[in-house]
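Hi all, long-time lurker, first post. I run a small reading group and we've been trying to get comfortable going from sequence to structure in the token notation. Rather than ask abstract questions, I figured I'd post a concrete chain and ask someone more experienced to write out its structure so we can walk through it together at our next meeting. Sequence below, copied exactly:
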Amino acid sequence: MNPAWCSAVEAGLRLTVQITPNAKKTEVIGVLDGALKLRLQAQPIEGKANEALIKFLAKALGQPRSAVRISHGLTSKTKRIEIAGTSLTPADAARLLLP
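-- Answer (accepted) --
Happy to help. Here is the structure in token form:
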């Protein structure tokens, strides 16, 4: 089963996420309109929310922080995340990230 928000690519995984910054705590809410919806405790200034997103995903997926990058949507609430060099499948990502 491949979730719509996560796909395998040649270099690893690609995730589509939608974030809500300035939340009380960082957490996954669920899936909405083909994107993994997340609340981030960080503020959306000076890249703080982007950095918090990368750290959260790296930790949740058990990947090094250096393997996770935002490939599209640096200033948007909807972002595309690339996770390089991972053996995780989309099903693994869904199991690790979804509540």
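A couple of things your group might point at:
The mean pLDDT is 94.
The chain is about 20% helix and 35% strand.
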